[in-house]
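Help! Submission page says 'invalid entity' but I think these are all valid:
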Amino acid sequence: EAGVAQSPRYKIIEKRQSVAFWCNPISGHATLYWYQQILGQGPKLLIQFQNNGVVDDSQLPKDRFSAERLKGVDSTLKIQPAKLEDSAVYLCASSLRSGALNTGELFFGEGSRLTVL
Amino acid sequence: KQEVTQIPAALSVPEGENLVLNCSFTDSAIYNLQWFRQDPGKGLTSLLLIQSSQREQTSGRLNASLDKSSGRSTLYIAASQPGDSATYLCAVRPVDSSYKLIFGSGTRLLVRP
C-alpha cells in the first residue's frame, strides 16, 4: 500500500516569495491534515480536511497561508508571501476519517522542508 | 487547553539497555494517545496507538502504557539498539469537536554502540 506522498522534499526561497506544497494521501483516506513542525518542536496542526471540506483551520495564518483539497483527494498548501519564521517542515498526514468511529491513527508523509532566507 | 510534555528532551544510553520515555498531558479527556518515531529529515512513523479504554499496547520490543487518570504515558523500549536512535513523539487526541492531535516536543534518543 502506498503511503502519503509529498513534494517537493526541499525548498529554499527568499522572504516575500511564494511557495506551494503538494500532498497525496493514502488511497481511501477521507481525512487530510497539514502540520507545521519548527525545528526542535512537535508538529502543530495548520488545517484539517474531511473529504474536500475544512474541519479545522483555527491555527492557519490566513493572511499568508491557504490550502485546498479539490475533489477530496490530493491537497496543496500555499504560503504567500513567506516570512523568515515560516522556515519549518510541512507535514501532510491522512487517516480513514475523523470522529468517534475513527481509530484515530494518522499516517504521515516524509515532509517538505522549507527554508526562507 | 491540552498540553503535552515529554521528559527528558534528550537521552543517551549504551546499546542493550532497557529504557523508558515519558509523556504527560494536562487534560485526561482524551480519545486516544499515539507514539511516533521521527528519523532526522524524515516524516513521522506511527509506532503504537492506545485507545482511552486500553491500558497498554505492545509491538515487538516496544510497550506503551496509558494511565489516563494521572495524565501519563510511557514508552518502554527493551534491549535498545543503535537503530532505535531517533526522536520519539507522543500525541493525544482530545475529546472535543476537532479531534486534532496535540503533540509533545519529543525525546531525542541516542543509542551508543
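Support: the input was valid. A stray whitespace character was the problem, and the output above is from the cleaned input. The interface with chain A takes residues 4, 31-32, 34, 36, 41-46, 49, 51, 89, 91, 93, 98-101, 103-106 of chain B (CB under 8 Å).
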